[in-house]
Structures are given as structure tokens and as C-alpha cells.
Specification:
By secondary structure, this protein is mostly helical. It is built from 14 helices and five strands. It is globular, with a radius of gyration of 21 Å.
Length: about 400
Amino acid sequence: MIIQLVGIVLISIIAITVIIDIVPLFRDWLSRIHIGRYEDKQIWNKSITKVGLKWLHTTPKIKVTDHTRLVVIDMLKGNYTKTAIQHWQEAALLLGMSEYLVKNDDKEAKKALMRFLNLKFDSKGQWLETPKHVDTAILAYAVMKLGFIETDRYKLALDATWDMIKDHIGHDGTVQYRTFMKGYRYVDTIGFVCPFLVAYGIRYKKDECVDLALKQIKAYEERGMLEGHHIPSHAYEVDDKLPLGLFGWGRGLGWYAIGLIDAWNELPSDHTYKAILEESVKRFAKAAIVFQQANGNWNWTVTRGECRPDSSTTATLGWFMLNASKIEEIADMCLDSANQASNYLMKVTRRNGAVDFSQGDTKDIGVYSMLFNILPFTQGFCIRMMNFNHGFKVVKR
């Protein structure tokens, strides 16, 4: 009898483990049937926006590991997902929805966003969970971009975010990715903190914030760029100024791109740093376009045509190019590039409106995911791009 019970328990455990492994794979296979059938950008925009709003409350968990077998072990160990990963996913969705609401008075969307904010902040506008990592700054920036709310309502949370960033400033005067990684500077950090620093600094007249954003960007340009091609490495070592990881990691280009373009956007036209960052925008736009593939995408390693396309890279660089097209000198080439990017992203959108084939979470410097799937971050930037300026105008080179 005991042997039979043990046998039943073992069989049940094996069955549950197999189901946990197989169900996601089967679901992905099923959802990719008839992928890329969107042809009308307005219909596509409505579809991706609907999914993005839904994900704001039920954000898909992004795996930390690449394991597709015995996934239950990662879940039990707490290695399946991390809170910090969710912050930049949620931020992208918020940024997308904020752009959507600029020209759409969607009361239901506003209610959904307020429900989200009430899960993050208390009645005084302070974080319910004290921010510990710089990833939080992009979420704070996204809150500042919600035009239908009074930003000052969340002033305590914004102040706490600035205090957290100050705690991450290293001996070289730039922001660390993590306080226990004092000797490295990551390209991700530019995207995480620079837009917030400029928006917060301009709004509350804190020049030191804007100064820090400029310093973060310029330091990376000096120490973390591939000479002759102006694309970033994953990170660099502060004291020895050695580049670390891969030059041309796609999402690394994306992090640099959104940090730069959003910081530039937040500066008033008469600000001293506006022209300085505009030169950086022009230089990076010309560099990145060189690596855009014929189908309109950028690959996960942009310098290799043989690598897999990455939707997260394509969405973030598409957003960058669309904004950079406001600069007359590079307007045509950037608008054409953004058009090509959006055309590609339509082709990799599932029939339910979820944009597919984004690279998974990075494990370490130089250790990259080989899983490509849905990613709220990508979804948010597709929404943001498509609602930034209703309708693209195709410009031929």
C-alpha cells in the first residue's frame, strides 16, 4: 500500500513537472499560428494597445533563466523572475499608454492606470515599496509622463527616487547599476536614469540632476563606445576604462537610445545642454542605421547579419529614430528607418496583438539569453512609437 502511494506521488510530481514545461511551449506554438497578418497600422495599433493595457495589471513574468525543462525547480528556488525586471517592463507599458492618451480621451484606460498607480503608491504619493535599484527610475519617469494626473501628487516618490540614485553615484561621479558593482558602468543605466534625471531636474529646478544625466551619457560616449562605429559595449570598467561584454548588443543600443533621446526631448529648446545632446543624437542615429537589416529589424547582435532579429531592439531604436526625425539634418533617413522598423514589428505580432520574438533577460555582462518571446518592454515601446505621431509618412532615401 505504501509503495503504491509513493508511486502515485512520484507519478503526480512527474506529471505536474512535465505539464509546467510543456504548456508554455504549446501555448507559444499555438499563438504563433497566423502570426504577422496585420497590414493596417491603425488596426495594429489598436490591437497592441489593448494588449499593453491588459498587461499593465497582469504583467507576464519574464524568466531570469533560459531553462525550458524542469522549470518548476527555478520557480521553487525563486529564480524564475525578479521584481527589478518587472519595473522596466511596467515602465515601458506606462510610457506607451501615456503616449496613447495624448490624443485619446480613453476614460477606461485612465481608470486602469489609476488602479495601477494605487498599487505602487500610498495616499501621500510615496512608494509602497522603497526603491532599491536604479531600474525604478524609469518607472518614476513613466509616472511623470502621465499627462492626465498631477505629477506633484507623487512628489515624495520622485524625491525618494532621486535619493536612491544619489546613493548609487560612484567615485567617478556617475551612477552605478548596483551598489555592489562599484567598478562597472552599464549601458542599461543610461536608459534607466537619464530621462528621469532630466525630467525631474527641469520640473523641480534641480540643475545637479540634469548635470548628472549629461555626465552619465558623455562618460559612456568617451569610454564605452566602439571607436569608428559609435555603438556601445554592454559595460565598461571605470578605473581601467576597459570595455566589457559585447559591442553591438542590440538591447544595449536600445537602452542607450532611449536614455539619450528622452533626455534630449525633456530639455527645453533654449537649454545649454540641448545642442550638446542633439549632436549625440545625430551621431548615434547615423551609426545605428548602418546596422538596420533589409527587413527593417535590428538583430540581437546588430553587427552580425546571421543573428536572430530582436523585437526589443527594433522597437526601442524605432522610437529613437522617430524622435530623431525632428532634427532636420537627419529627418528623412530617421523617418524612413522608423517606418521600416514598424513594418517589421507588424510582421512579428501574434494574432492577439502581442509582439513576439524579443530577446529574454540578460544574465550577466556578456551572457545573453537565447530565448525570444513576448516582452512587455517591447509592447510598450511599440505602443509608444505608434502613438507618438499618428500615422507614418514613408520617405524614400
